[in-house]
Amino acid sequence: MTTPVARDHSEHIAAFLKEIADRSCAKNLTGVAIGVIFDGQEYRAVSGWADVPSKRPVSDATVFEVGSLSKLFTSLLLAKAVTKGEIRLDDPLQPALGDLVTLPTDGRSGITYRSLANHRSSLPRLPDDLIATADMENPYVHYDQAMLYACLNRMKPLAPIGSSSTYSNFGVGLLGHVLGKLAGCDFRKALYERVLVPLGMLDTSAEATSEQAPRLATAHSKKDRPTRHWDFTEVTVAAGGVRSSLSDMLKFLRANVSPEMSALSEELRLMREPSDLPHHEGRKPERLSWLSWVLPLGYVVVLALFELYLHGTKWLTRGGLDGLLFFSLMLLPTLVAACYGGRIPSIVTLALMTLLTWSLWGAGASTFVVLVWGACLVYIFSGWKRNWAKFLQMLHGDGRLAWQSSEIGAHPVIWHNGMVGGSASYLGIVEPLGVGVVVLTNTARSVDPLGVKILAELVRIKEADRPAP
């Protein structure tokens, strides 16, 4: 047996990234920087303007607001506190805050470090008084410790902690504030000393530095429409206040693609571990059972209304109410079976529906249209339970610290994204294949599709290189 020789894809990947970068800036981004790690090698592509009036182009050293990618850094700082033995993930947060603030509870258990990092603390997305008091062009700049503590002290009891996932900037900001306290300083200093320095990310900061200022990309609410950068206080910065360059974010990406080679290998591993909250915290199973009946029953009702639309009241006299009831009862098990198992092929479902309808009303042309329409819906609903569960998992996460999870084909992906008033970001890794991408832009437009498209191409290349069995 001959050993397959890996092909060199360097030129293809470089050209592919450059094409995506240039096309994105020609269409809807002011500037973009893309970094990829593939087979241990780094690829970079930049395009557009860091600042349009001065004609300053985007470069590897351009500094971007990374938005909610900050949450990855916050969770890494949390993991560092755990490996140092200062706390455990399921410890309650209250002792670290002392008597100045009383955290809300669900009546049975309190907010834990883990529940803040994986958005299962039941805290809302934002404090209830933030929007009402904010300048929406820079919404976090005013929200200080006194306001945070006052908000927490007046909060009502929470929904059961762990019962659902609510993406919470409020919660991650609180987590960062407490992690600073544990380190004996504030969040910014703790992040720098415990995370950024070990990773060699000296061009990354949680504050606007004088050294970075000349290289900071101008923020844009839309392509070529400048807006203000967002500023964060000590109690909000952990949720979205990190600024970094492509060169530094590639260091972060490499550490996550190959954590065993990183100075923070144990912490990076801890971040990736899926976990459920303890049962005593009230986590409920996903609410799928009622949908198992509502969707099929709803479909039968819609189908009946469609028949009424086509045939009017004559349809009822053809089969009568008894016929309608018989039809519904016969069709319902077929749909439920398709929904529950996703094992009934669409052609079988179509045949069953055709047979039932033929026996009750005959099969005219209009009825055939109904049958085809119904078969398409059943085909979509087939296997919906698995797809719905996957969607919930993607939305809620699987208990990892900050990371979200999804799939490209059969390959698991961990990822996070970010957006502030004038910037957006995406970072994703296909763990088993050892490939990853980071995308930064100075336009408030999601770059998730770009990141996913790039990952999909990297996966395609890997699969094409796989030797035939």
Describe the structure concisely.
The protein is α+β, with helices and mostly antiparallel strands and 469 residues long.
Approximate helicity band: 40-55%
**Could you spell the SSE succession in H and E letters?**
HEEEEHHHHHHEEHEHHHHHHHEEEEH
Global structural class? alpha+beta
CATH architecture of the domain at 67-208 and 228-281: 3-Layer(aba) Sandwich
C-alpha end-to-end distance: 12 Å
Average pLDDT works out at: 82
Strand content: 5-15%
CATH topology of the domain at 67-208 and 228-281: Beta-lactamase
CATH superfamily name of the domain at 67-208 and 228-281?
Answer: DD-peptidase/beta-lactamase superfamily
Shape: globular
Uncertain regions spanning at least 5 consecutive residues: 277-293, 337-347, 382-386
The tally of strands reads: 11
Strand order of the largest sheet: 3-2-1-11-10-9-8
The largest sheet, given as strand count, sense and whether it forms a barrel, is: 7 strands, antiparallel
CATH class of the domain at 67-208 and 228-281: Alpha Beta
What gyration radius follows from the Cα positions, in whole Å? 27 Å
**Contiguous helical run count:** 16
